[in-house]
Amino acid sequence: MFNVLTYNNIAGNVLTSLPPGKYAVTAQCSSPDAILLRSFDLHGVAIPDSVLAVGRAGSGVNNIPVEACSRRGIPVFNAPGANANAVKELALAAMLLASRKIPAAWDFARGLKGDDLAISQQVEKEKKRFAGCELAKKTLGVLGLGAIGVQVANSAISLGMHVYGFDPWLTVERAWQLSSSAVEAASVEDLLTRADVVTLHIPLDERTTHFVDGSHLALMKEGAVLINLSRAEVVEEAALCSALSSGKLRSYVTDFATRAVLDQPLAIVLPHLGASTAEAEANCASMVAQSLADFLENGEIRNSVNFPQAILPRGSSMRLAIANENVPGVVSQVSAALTAAGLNIENLLNKSRDQYAYTLIDLDTEVSAETLQPIRSIKGVLSARLIPKSAS
After folding, report:
1. Euclidean distance between CA atoms 56 and 258, whole angstroms
2. Is 4 exposed, middle or buried (0-12, 13-18, 19+ CB in 10 A)?
3. Contact 284/278 with Cβ under 8 angstroms?
4. Which ranges of 8-129 does DSSP label H, i.e. alpha helix?
5. Angstrom distance (rounded) from CA 235 to CA 45
6. Domain 1-83+275-307: CATH architecture, name and number where available
7. Which of 210, 200, 194 is nearest to 153 (CA)?
8. How far is 74 from 48, CA to CA, in rounded Å?
9. Digit-coded pLDDT (tens) for 187-211
10. Closest of 69, 208, 88 to residue 147, by C-alpha
C-alpha cells in the first residue's frame, strides 16, 4: 500500500492510476510515500523523510522547493501540456479582449440608463470610443514554443495572423507540431520589433524573472499588445506600468493580479483562469497521478522537472532505483557493491540531467534491505530503494 498525501482537492479520475487497495490518497498522513498538490505552497513545509516523490497537477512548479527535493533524491513531477488547450483558448480570448476593447465596451453597456430610445442614442454617440482592430493580417509574436505556445501559434495562423516564434530551447517534438507557416524570429529582440501582439508562454525561473524589462518594452511597436499568461514576475512591473501610462502599449492582458497592474486603466486583469477548466484540471490530475504510479511501482521517471526521464521495461523480480549527483564513479561503485554482495545485474539504465543522475538496475535474485547500506554510503548517492516486482 502506498500513501499519497494531498494538499489540494485533486480533480479528475486519479483512482484510475491510484486505485484503492494499492493506494491510500488522503489529506491526513504522517508518513506519506508521495505528495500530490496543485497550488498549495510547499515552501517552508516540512517534507517527511518517507516521501519518495512530489507531483503537481499542473505545469509550473514554483510552489515546490525543487532544489531541496533534488538534494534528497526526490523527483518532482508535473503535467506538461495537460492544460495547454485551456491556456491556448484563454490566450485567444485575451487577443480578442484587447483588440476589440471588449472589457471597456462591456462596462459602458452595463452602465447604460433610460429607456430603449435613450440607450440607442447613447450607444450611437459613444460606440466610436470602443472601435478596435481585427486580428487577421496582424503579426503575433509567440515567446516560448512549448505545448501551449505551439498551440497558440497554430490557432493564430488559422485566424489569419502572421506568426513569429522564438524559443532557444525548442524541442524536436514541439517543432514537429508547429505549423510550417510560423516564422522563426532571429532573437527575442527581433520578435518584439515585429509583433503587433506579443504573448508570453515561458516558465518562471532564474533565467526568466523580469525577462521582459524596460529595454524589451522599448523595442515593441507603438500601440502593441502584451499578453502574459505565464507568471507575473516574467515581466518587470515598474517598466510595464510606465509603458502603459505613456501609451507605448495599447493594452496588457494578464492572468495575475497585482495592485500596480490593477490600477492601470489599459490593463486587462484576469484572476488566474489559465488552467481553470474542468477538462484541464482532470487532464493534469490524471497525468501526474500516472507519473507517480510509474515511479512508486517501478521506479520509472516520466515528466520530472529535476531528474532525467528513465524508462526500463520490467522483467526481473527485484529492481534497485538510485538517485545521485551527476559525478564520475557512482555507477561503478554501485556495481562493485552489488558484486561484493554476490548479486548479478540483469539490466541497467543510467541517465543524467544537469547536476543529477538516476539509475535503474534489475537484479535476477531477491535482495535484502541490508544490501542498500553500502550503496547509500557511496559519496554522491542521494537515495536508493528496492522495488519488488510484486509492488507493480
Report:
1. 24
2. buried
3. no
4. 66-71, 84-99, 102-110, 116-126
5. 28
6. 3-Layer(aba) Sandwich (3.40)
7. 200
8. 11
9. 999 999 999 999 999 988 889 999 9
10. 88
